[in-house]
Specification:
Elements lengths: L5 H32 L11 H12 L1 H4 L3 H27 L9 H19 L1 E4 L10 H8 L2 H9 L16 H12 L8 H29 L8 H36 L11 H11 L3 H25 L7
Helix pairs in contact: 1-2, 1-4, 1-12, 4-5, 5-9, 7-8, 9-10, 10-11, 10-12
InterPro entries: MCP_dom_sf, MCP_transmembrane, Mitochondrial_Carrier
Membrane topology: Multi-pass membrane protein
Pfam family, one: Mito_carr
């Protein structure tokens, strides 16, 4: 990308985040419920992602799949803005203007990992409340919400009215969830799963952006010489494929860390292991990939939509990129 006003990178990332929630939130709800209840010893299990989604629709209708989507729109927009913005600006700083369209691993990997590490601190305060439909009526409440979202995102998401799921404490919204967590676990409870989130985001972002950049480069290389009339359609098609493949690569690489994070954040025992690698000893290799189906089904369309939204927004904002 050529030098440009910094804020534009963040605006384009914000648009990508909004589109991601619209496309992928229902799949994420199913994934979190599978990770929580299908890794516990004993108890009723969901047969698969489709069974879980069907149960949610039967007991809570479509709104059950979008539990907490209101807060996710705010959180994901902010997080995506930072992720794409930091990645774009750091990559530009590391590789300068010597781009030529060819991916530069020495710039892509550290830029993506750095962006992922930064947003992991916000995410670890954000995912414990994910599926709350609580409103955010003013800026102060928004700040209070954002200081607790990752841990509470999952805790709100695993709630619901499905009789297959053991009845748990109900939270009316993210703020109540935050207050109860602090009362019961102290301030450190708000950072449960922090290491797992840091590893997931830094490693995952490096894998995602590397896959996206290389897939995009080689696809454009193959399509070089296409008529200018079809160039916009080609850009969208390449964005869909490169973004979708990047999303699949991301989750294939870090799903075990995501499963560990969900378990750490939703287990009520204070002395439960915070080691993200203990998931293998607890549930084996199969348990590490609990929720893989809905995760990959979500990964392609959600990330494809995010990349297309990011690239189109960047183009509208005047951020040009050499193919």
């Amino acid at each position: 990308m050529e030098a440009t006003s910094g804020y534009k990178d963040y605006v384009a990332g914000l648009m990508a985040g909004i589109i991601t929630v619209i496309t992928g939130h229902p799949f994420d709800t199913v994934k979190v419920k599978l990770q929580k209840y299908n890794t516990e010893a004993g108890g009723v299990k969901y047969k698969n992602g489709l069974h879980c989604a069907t149960r949610i629709l039967q007991t809570e209708e479509v709104k059950g799949l979008y539990r907490g989507a209101t807060s996710s729109f705010i959180g994901m927009a902010f997080e995506s803005s930072l992720s794409f913005g930091i990645y774009s600006q750091t990559k530009r700083f590391l590789q300068g203007e010597i781009d030529g369209g060819k991916p530069q691993p020495h710039a892509i990997v550290p830029s993506a990992a750095f962006g992922g590490a930064i947003i992991s601190f916000i995410l670890c305060l954000s995912e414990l409340v994910k599926v709350s439909d609580a409103r955010v009526p003013n800026f102060l409440l928004y700040l209070e919400y954002h200081l607790c979202k990752v841990v509470f995102q999952c805790r709100m998401q695993v709630q619901g009215t499905d009789f297959m799921v053991p009845k748990s404490t109900r939270f009316r919204g993210p703020l109540e969830c935050a207050l109860k967590t602090v009362q019961q676990e102290g301030l450190t409870g708000m950072f449960r799963g922090g290491l797992a989130t840091l590893l997931r985001e830094s490693v995952g972002n490096a894998v995602f952006f590397s896959t996206y950049e290389y897939a995009r480069y080689f696809m454009h290389l193959q399509l070089k010489g296409a008529s200018s009339e079809s160039s916009q359609l080609i850009d969208v098609g390449v964005g869909i494929m490169s973004g979708g493949l990047g999303g699949i690569a991301f989750w294939s690489a870090v799903l075990p860390l995501d499963v560990a994070k969900t378990i750490i954040q939703t287990t009520p025992e204070k002395n439960h292991s915070k080691n993200p690698f203990s998931i293998y000893r607890r549930s084996g290799l199969r348990g590490c990939y609990t929720g893989l189906g809905p995760t990959l089904v979500r990964a392609f369309p959600a990330n494809a939509a995010a990349i297309v939204a990011w690239e189109l927004s960047a183009k509208l904002l005047g951020i040009r990129r050499v193919q």
